[in-house]
Write a structure and sequence with these properties.
Layout (H helix, E strand, L loop, with lengths): L6 H14 L10 H15 L7 H7 L4 H12 L3 H19 L4 H7 L5 H12 L3 H16 L11
Helix pairs in contact: 3-4, 5-8
Length: about 160
């Protein structure tokens, strides 16, 4: 269909955006958002650590229900969604810059279940981690390939 952009064109753009999208800094306007920001920083610092509602609520000095509500309000994501996003971004960095196996990367990034890692990776990026690595390597090769050289004529 003319004028319609297909998924094969959009997927690489979306993947590249997600891979490089910065996690926005949170505004510390009150104690609740400050507590949420401290939790986000802890997750960013070491996403491989277990992320539990109870632990994060305690870190933010809130009840679990209040924390869950405030976290979603401040970040736009649930605690689990946010943690998975950070872990997926870390996995993408490793997949595109190392030769480690996808299994090893999944566990290093804090995913305790390989099937879950593959499932949310495919849902987020519309490809498997192995396919992502192939795609990222092709992108890297294209970006590092020299532009067409123009010959200089001597007269």
């Amino acid at each position: 269909v003319r004028g319609r952009v297909g998924p094969s064109f959009l997927s690489p753009l979306l993947i590249n955006y997600c891979r490089q999208a910065p996690i926005p800094s949170l505004v510390t306007t009150n104690n609740k958002s400050f507590g949420i920001e401290r939790c986000c920083e802890a997750i960013l610092k070491d996403p491989s650590q277990p992320i539990t509602l109870e632990k994060m609520a305690k870190k933010a000095c809130m009840s679990r229900s209040s924390f869950a509500l405030q976290f979603k309000t401040v970040t736009g994501k649930s605690l689990i969604e946010y943690g998975n996003l950070i872990r997926l971004q870390k996995a993408c960095q490793h997949l595109s810059s190392t030769e480690e196996s996808a299994t090893s990367i999944a566990y290093d990034c804090g995913f305790g279940n390989l099937g879950h890692f593959y499932s949310i990776f495919k849902k987020q990026y519309d490809m498997t981690p192995v396919d992502y690595r192939r795609w990222a390597l092709k992108q890297s090769a294209r970006e590092s390939a020299p532009e067409g050289r123009q010959e200089v004529q001597s007269g």
